[in-house]
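User: Sequence recovery, please. Input:
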């Protein structure tokens, strides 16, 4: 792309961003201050489990203040704290970051990373599109405000989980409870268990808020593993709940494989409502049921046909997508009754006890989650259709291995990045706010690219995060069973062959006996016919002899002289 076009595009994006920022400021200041249900908010924020994206912004902030004695050298900047708690500034900040971030991303892709092989563009549009979407969704996960102290909370970030559920459903749409499906599910279970076994104690130890220590006994070690699996949201150092949910989704797909897609979606929606009203179920089952409709919708959604019907991705579609997403964002944030509805938790019954909040609050949370699901589904479609590149690029292969980033990014941030992020907070007073968020966006992109790169995939971590050797073991076990089965089948076939040969020999003997009997009968008939021929010849000889005698007698009579009496 020429530099002039790139510069012009960037300028147009900047003008659009400034206009949207001005509209956002006017709308935010003209609107009345939101009324928040303090009792529900306090009940949600006091939980030690996930509220919005892992542990929840306000829950994280409260625990950081409680644990401030552990980090006295890192005070919370008052300016950033006010920005993070003021709703008007949240709307303004999110709009600026949202528009500028995607505008810069589009300029970068079009200018430097555009696919130069036009024949490859339509070769695998669905795979390239989904892998690209997985990469940028992982950037949003790394950018989740739970990693920042005092950072603003925005519902723009909240659609990435439903997008992953949608994409996971489409990727696994053809899996059946056969040998291949069981192997894939076994690999996911092995990856989850291995990650928890090796990294759960480490994640608990390096968690910057609660902290911890390594287990000192085998019993304590297995207790940590079991607690991490049973209550995944209470362990902020790992993100294993999605792996648990993915296993649960595939099991549901195997159980409902004989149903039509519409029936699966309806059943998942009924489960979504039921488990909002029921008490929490451990092992992330309740949360998995909240997102199960997106998984089944992804299995039934015709992505290939939609991609072929949509126009090519360009500045026009990019601007359309940004406008639609911004409109949805303002629709969520600006209406007062929706803001009151959005003041409660966003995840599911893993963070709520229906008996604690009452039926009215639970119904309100159910309506809120339903609203978030609908708007998130629209965001997913807008992102895939208008914002996500469809051709292969440098990050397509990285998106195929987004599992590495998902499982490792929290550990890396807790181990190495927390101090750096806190130092950036300290510098936020002297810098414009965009000068903090845009470098953080770049940091999350680089972190995603690093953790999904071949440098990590070729390391020993691949034995844990992508245990293909489990399939090899399963194949060896199946091959051993197959070899035994083949040996048994071979023995049975040999016995069958022997029986068949004996039967053939008996049949051949019977055939020979029958042939001998037939030959004997034929010889008997031939001898009888020969005897009859001999008799006939003897009778002919007798008849000839008789005729000869008669002829001789006649001849003698003719040759004898006449009698004298006769002559006289």
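Assistant: Recovered sequence (568 residues):
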């Amino acid at each position: 792309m020429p530099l002039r076009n790139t510069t012009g595009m960037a300028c147009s994006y900047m003008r659009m961003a400034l206009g949207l920022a001005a509209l956002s400021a006017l709308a935010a200041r003209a609107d009345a201050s939101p009324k928040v249900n303090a009792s529900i908010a306090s009940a949600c924020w006091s939980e030690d489990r996930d509220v919005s994206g892992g542990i929840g912004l306000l829950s994280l902030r409260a625990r950081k203040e409680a644990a401030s004695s552990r980090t006295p050298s890192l005070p919370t900047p008052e300016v950033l704290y006010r920005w993070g708690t003021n709703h008007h500034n949240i709307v303004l900040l999110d709009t600026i970051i949202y528009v500028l971030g995607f505008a810069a991303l589009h300029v970068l892709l079009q200018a430097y990373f555009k696919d130069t092989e036009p024949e490859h563009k339509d070769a695998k549009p669905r795979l390239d599109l989904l892998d690209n979407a997985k990469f940028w969704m992982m950037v949003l996960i790394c950018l989740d405000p739970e990693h920042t102290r005092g950072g603003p909370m925005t519902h723009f970030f909240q659609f990435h989980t439903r997008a992953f559920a949608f994409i996971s459903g489409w990727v696994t749409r053809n899996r059946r409870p056969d040998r291949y499906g069981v192997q894939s599910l076994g690999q996911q279970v092995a990856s989850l268990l291995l990650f928890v076994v090796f990294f759960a104690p480490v994640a608990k130890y390096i968690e910057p808020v609660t902290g911890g220590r390594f287990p000192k006994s085998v019993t304590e070690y297995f207790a940590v593993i079991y607690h991490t699996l049973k209550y995944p949201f209470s362990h902020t150092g790992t993100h294993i709940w999605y792996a648990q949910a993915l296993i649960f989704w595939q099991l549901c797909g195997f159980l409902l494989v004989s149903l039509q897609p519409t029936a699966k979606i309806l059943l998942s929606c009924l489960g979504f409502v039921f488990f909002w009203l029921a008490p929490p179920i451990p092992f992330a089952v309740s949360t998995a049921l909240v997102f199960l409709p997106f998984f089944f919708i992804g299995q039934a959604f015709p992505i290939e046909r939609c991609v072929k019907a949509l126009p090519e991705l360009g500045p026009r579609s990019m601007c359309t997508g940004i406008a639609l997403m911004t409109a949805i964002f303002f629709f969520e944030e600006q209406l007062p009754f929706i803001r009151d509805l959005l003041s409660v938790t966003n995840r599911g019954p893993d963070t709520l006890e229906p008996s604690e909040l009452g039926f009215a609050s639970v119904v309100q949370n159910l309506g809120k989650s339903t609203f978030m699901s609908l708007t998130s589904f629209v965001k997913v479609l807008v992102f895939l259709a208008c914002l996500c590149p469809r051709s292969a690029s440098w990050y397509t292969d990285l998106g195929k291995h987004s599992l590495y980033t998902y499982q490792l990014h929290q550990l890396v941030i807790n181990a190495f990045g927390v101090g750096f992020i806190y130092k950036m907070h300290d510098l936020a007073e002297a810098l414009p706010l965009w000068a903090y968020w845009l470098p953080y966006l770049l940091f999350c992109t680089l972190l995603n690219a690093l953790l999904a790169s071949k440098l990590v995939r070729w390391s020993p971590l691949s034995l844990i995060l992508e245990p293909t050797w489990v399939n090899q073991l399963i194949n060896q076990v199946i091959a051993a069973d197959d070899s035994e089965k083949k040996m048994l089948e071979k023995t049975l076939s040999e016995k069958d062959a022997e029986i068949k040969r004996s039967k053939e020999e008996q049949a051949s003997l019977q055939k020979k006996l029958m042939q001998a009997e037939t030959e004997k009968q034929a010889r008997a008939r031939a001898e009888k016919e020969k005897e009859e021929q001999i008799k006939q010849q003897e009778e002919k000889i007798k008849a000839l002899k008789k005729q000869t005698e008669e002829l001789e007698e006649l001849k003698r009579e003719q040759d004898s002289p006449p009698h004298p009496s006769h002559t006289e």
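Residues 3-143+162-466 form one domain.
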